[in-house]
Amino acid sequence: MYRPGETIRSLTRDVEFDGGRHHRARLGFILMSTDLAAESDFSDMVPEGVAIHITRLKTDDYTTNETLSKHIEFMADAASRIQPDTKPDVISYSCTSGSIVIGEQRILSEITKGAPYAIPMTLVTGVVDALRELNAKKLVVGTPYLDEINTNEAEFLYQKGFNVLDIQGLNLETGIEFGTVTPEYWKKFALEIDHPDADAIFLSCGGIRALEVAQEIEALTNKPVITSNQAQMWSCLRRAGIPDHIDGFGQIFQRNGLTINSLSDT
């Protein structure tokens, strides 16, 4: 029993250590301050033994090409603050439209500046990885964005070698609006924009709740559905050496990622 004035002296013990709860891999994500969907999506998808570490950029909730372009100013700092002592295997900038507006290579450079120990990633890198893995050439794309962003996205996908049969946006202005569109509406929207010649449906934006209905849409259309967070997580896992096939989030998670290459060849 402790008595006032006594000095505590613990016994010497042989403490047992292991690789920790997250012994397989650690993934870091840089999110927008207004993103209402990604953290829940990542938590739903992450396999056992894999860590998810999150930091957020202070971002303007009015989503335009101009506001998105400012994210790069704080990218290196954000990357440096994601569990630097444990050194994540992969760090990804988790914004589809921002990745396109700023440019993949510039983002990768800034992430590497802040976290040179991690594989740098962007969300659209994961999307391209997933679409190529599925050998999808002809796409229909649904977004929550203004058409100035949709135009940039169509050009980006074209430059990556995809034929965009149609791209339709909801012309919403804020990240909070993006995150409060219902999953049921994303399903209805996907079915509306689907085209008989499309190889895949891409529901674009890390801040939307499309993951929840991706597998339902696949069953209804008999074609793969890619969502931003799903593709990003799949690609980050494969780049970190995690081969798990995960049920419930679309057919991409049954693929091994054999087509994933560095950005230098694109």
Question: Could you tell me how far the N terminus lies from the C terminus, measured between alpha carbons in angstroms?
Answer: 68 Å
Q: What proportion strand?
A: 15-25%
Tally of separate domains: 2
* Main beta-sheet annotation: 4 strands, parallel
Oligomeric form of this entry? single chain
Unreliable stretches covering 5 or more consecutive residues? 262-266
Q: What would you say the CATH architecture of the largest domain is?
A: 3-Layer(aba) Sandwich
What's the overall average pLDDT, rounded?
Answer: 94
- The number of helices is 11
Name of the CATH first level of the largest domain? Alpha Beta
Shape: globular
What is Rg? 20 Å
Summarize the amount of helix as a percent range: 25-40%
Helical/strand content category? alpha/beta
Pattern of helices and strands: EHEHHEHHEHEHEHHEHEH
**Spatial order of the strands forming the largest sheet:** 2-1-3-4
Count of DSSP E strands?
A: 8
Can you summarize this structure?
This protein has 11 helices and 8 strands. It has helices at residues 38-45, 65-69, 75-80, 96-102, 104-114, 123-133, 147-159, 175-180, 183-193, 214-221, 228-239, and strands at 25-32, 50-57, 90-93, 119-122, 138-143, 163-169, 200-203, 225-227.
